[in-house]
Each structure stands twice: as structure tokens, then as C-alpha cells.
Amino acid sequence: MQSIDVYRLPGKCPESNNLKSLKSPRSEAAAERDAALAAAGSALLGPLGAESGVARAEDVADEEVRLAAELQRRKELHGRRQQELQQLRLQRSSEAKRHVAEEEAVEEQLLENRQLREALQAQLVRQAEEDSEMRKEEASAMGRVEALRHMIAEQESALKAAATQRLSSEEMLQDEHRKATELEAKLERQEVRLRRLQQEDQERKEREARRAMLEGALSDLKGALDELGFAGAGDMEEHGKRPPGTNLLLQSSLLDAAAQSLRAELARAKNEGRDVASSASAVSLIQDLRERVRLEPGWVYRVHLGETVGIVLGNQTSSKQKLGRLP
């Protein structure tokens, strides 16, 4: 803050009163001096009058001359005093004007100081308000900072809890993954076992079907052989009844060819692992035997059964031949 200087106004200064009373004491002193001179002159003229009139006249003349000279001197002194007084008055007037100007300057300075003081007071008030607002903002900011710190602490605790939960979840996932892997391995083992059981069951069913087909094929073969007349050949020979030579030769040839072909098919199917196919081949063989072996008297028959060839001779020869090949 700026310092404020206080000046005393010239109107209220004691020197102004001295300036107003400066003229009267000097005039009174001059009048008193004139009166004293007149009294001294009269006192001097008194004894001279008593002695002689001439001397007195001379003395009076001298005294008048002296008094005139003194009066002249006093007038000159009074003129000089008047000039000095005039100069003093002019000086006092200039000093008064200067004091007035100084007073005006002081008043202006006081006004400026007052305005400056008011401005400073307003600035101080604003500064105080700003300080108050700043303190409020600082308090609010500190509150927000504390709230943020509390929030950050809560978030950190939540993150730690989440990290712990994540670790536990990862452990649980690893445990579940391990269990899933074990279950997958167990399931694979069960699937392998199931496939093996299914394969075994399928093989068992195939063996049963193959056994049934073989049994059926054997029964069909037996029936076919019975139809060809091999079943009663021994009985007829025992009773002395001999079948015709042509039928006997045909039957023996067909029997040998069928047996050899059937053995070859069964061996090949066993080597290739085709039991069902061999059974089907046996059945087809029997069916071909039934269809192709039909004797007609008077013809020559050549029957091919695999690699075996059976030749049948009839009662008559002819250029006609019937050829057949079994698979």
C-alpha cells in the first residue's frame, strides 16, 4: 500500500494571520517615532526660548532643517519601507498563490490518494473475495482429490479382488480343462472300447450269419447231391441194382468237380477274409449245379467246374455240345 501524506492548508496556517497583521504594527511604529521626534523638538526649543530669541530662531531654523532632513530621511525610509512592504505583499501574494496552487495540488493529490485508497480498498476487497473463492475452490479441490483418492483406492481394491477372482477362475478353468481332457481321454477310450465291442459284435454276427449260411449251403449241397442220385447209389449197388452208366459217370464227375471247386472257393475266401463271400459263392455254385446239370439222352455234355472238366457220354454221338462254366 502507498503512504498518504497529510498537508496543512495555508488558510489554517498561523503564518497567514501574521501576513494579515503585518501592516498595522509598522504604521503604528512610524507614527510613534514621528510623535517622539516632535516631542523632542519641542523639548529642545523650550530652553532656547528662554535664553535668546536669535539663537532660538537659529536653532529653530537648524532644527527645522534637521527635522526636515530627518523627515525627508524618514519619508525615504518610509518609502523604502513601503516598497519593501509592497514587495513583501507581492511576495506574500505569490506565496499565497503558490500555497493555493500547492493546496490545489495537495487536494488533487489527496483526491488521487483517496481514489487510490478507494481503489486499493476495492482491490483489497476483491482480493479478499478472490482469496475466499480460492480457498473455497482449494477446499472443493481437496474434497474432490480426497474423493478421487477414495475412488482410486476402491478401484484398486476392486482390481485386486478381480485379479484374485481371475486367478481363481484361471485355476478353475485349468482344473476344468484338465478334467475335460481326462473326460475326453476317457471318452476316447470308451469310444475305442465301444468300437471294439461293436466290431466284435459285428464279427460275432457275421460269424453267426456265415455259420448259418454255411450250414444252409451245406444242407443245400446235400440236398443237391441227393437230387443228383448220390444218396441211393450205395443201396442200389448193395441190392444188385446198378444205375445207368451214363448217369453214374455224370454224377461222379459232377461230385468231384463240385467238391474241388467248393474247397478252392473256401480256401481262397479264408485267405482273403471273405467268409460271407465264400458262402455266397457256395450257394451260387449249388444253384448253378441245379440249373445246368440237366441230362438229355443222346447228347455229349462237357461241364466246366472251375479248373475241373467233367465229360459225359450219351448213347448217341452228335456234333451238338452244351458247354457251361461255373465261377
UniProtKB/TrEMBL annotation:
Residue ranges, annotated region (Disordered): 1-28
Keyword terms of this UniProt record: Coiled coil
Coiled coil spans: 54-207
Official protein name in the record: Reticulocyte-binding protein homolog 2a (PfR2Ha) (PfRH2a) [Cleaved into: Reticulocyte-binding protein homolog 2a 85 kDa form Reticulocyte-binding protein homolog 2a 285 kDa form]
Organism name: Cladocopium goreaui
